[in-house]
Specification:
With 268 residues, the chain is of the alpha/beta class. Helix content is 47%, strand content 15%. The chain has helices spanning 11-24, 42-55, 70-79, 93-109, 141-151, 175-184, 200-209, 218-234, 241-263, and strands spanning 3-7, 28-32, 60-67, 83-86, 113-118, 155-158, 190-192, 211-216. It has an eight-stranded parallel beta barrel with strand order 1-2-3-4-5-6-7-8, surrounded by nine helices. Helix 6 links the parallel strand 6 and strand 7 (190-192). Helix 2 runs parallel beside helix 3 (70-79). The longest helix has 23 residues, at 241-263. The radius of gyration is 18 Å and the shape is globular. The two termini are 14 Å apart. The structure holds 1,3-dihydroxyacetonephosphate. 1,3-dihydroxyacetonephosphate is lined by residues 7, 33, 65-66, 164-165, 193-197, 215-218. Residues 7, 33, 65-66, 164-165, 193-197, 215-218 line the site of 1,3-dihydroxyacetonephosphate.
Length: 268
């Protein structure tokens, strides 16, 4: 199975994910990415996610997604995040390795685990998508071997053809990249970013090849938006915002339920 990792830039999206995980009895990761700072600060998102995690009936980790600097990682650890991603994948390999090694030493000293990224996803949350040639960004298994050995990371995000955001075209996935990186890194948990919008079959194959954490948000957020459209259409006389928020939560919970069934080996 793979653990689903869901961004929580709103209370509704985080609650929807926790409710779905509880319904299925599966563990969950809630995460905040600096790209969502305009919607909610790292500190406030962290406190909300930690409160939800404490109350949850299933294990819930609170994770920093795409930490972009030592300062961001420190703020997350101080807030109580239980794991951090340090993403220097846009930097030269040696620099990524050296900086990640430093973060790992620091985070492990306070019992916080670290995800890093090698290879590159040709997109960020709000930028233009450039997924025409994802092969150019695939993770190199030999680089991954050295990177993991010398940094001591706990999980590695790899590039094998997924992209963040909405897929403009059918993704060109290389499951062979997952297999080869897994073998080169001694079975280290591998992470899929850009994990929403794939076919059920692609998820199952990626998990069978070694993906153990799947980052998922864009298609959940779109489901929430559809929930609001529907609520507006159902209430032509006017709609309270709290009812719109409830409609969005319900729609996102359904989307997360469907995907968590697949991630945990069911839903066939
Ligand atoms: P999606 O944009 O495919 O939902 O991916 C989210 C993600 O990878 C966050 O790091």
């Amino acid at each position: 199975m793979a653990i689903g990792s869901f961004n929580g830039p709103t209370l509704e999206s985080a609650r929807a994910a926790v409710e779905a995980a509880q319904e299925l009895g599966v563990p969950l990761i809630l995460q905040h990415a600096p790209a969502h700072d305009p919607y909610i600060s790292l500190e406030l998102a962290g406190k909300i996610m930690l409160a939800l995690a404490e109350q949850a009936t299933v294990p819930v980790c609170v994770h920093l997604d795409h930490g972009d600097s030592l300062e961001t990682v420190m703020r997350a650890i101080r807030t109580g995040y239980t794991s951090v991603m340090y993403d220097a994948s846009g930097k030269p390999f040696e620099q990524n390795l050296q900086e990640t090694r430093k973060i790992v030493r620091m985070a492990h000293a306070v019992n916080v685990s670290v995800e890093a990224e090698l290879g590159n996803l040709p997109h960020n949350f709000h930028g233009e998508m450039t997924d025409e040639n994802p092969e150019a960004f695939y993770t190199n298994p030999e680089d991954a071997r050295r990177f993991v050995k010398e940094t001591g990371v706990d999980a590695l995000a790899i590039a094998f053809g997924t992209v963040h955001g909405v897929y403009k075209a059918k993704p060109k996935l290389s499951f062979d990249v997952i297999r080869r990186v897994r073998e080169a890194t001694g079975g280290l948990p591998l992470v899929m970013h850009g994990g929403s919008g794939l076919s059920d079959e692609d998820y199952r194959t990626a998990i069978a090849c070694g993906i153990r954490k799947i980052n998922y948000y864009t298609y959940e957020a779109l489901a929430g938006g559809r929930g609001i459209y529907q609520a507006v259409a159902d209430h032509p006389q006017g709609l309270y915002f709290h009812d719109a928020a409830m409609a969005a939560t319900a729609a996102m919970r359904e989307d997360v339920l469907r995907i968590l069934r697949i991630f945990s080996g069911g839903g066939q």
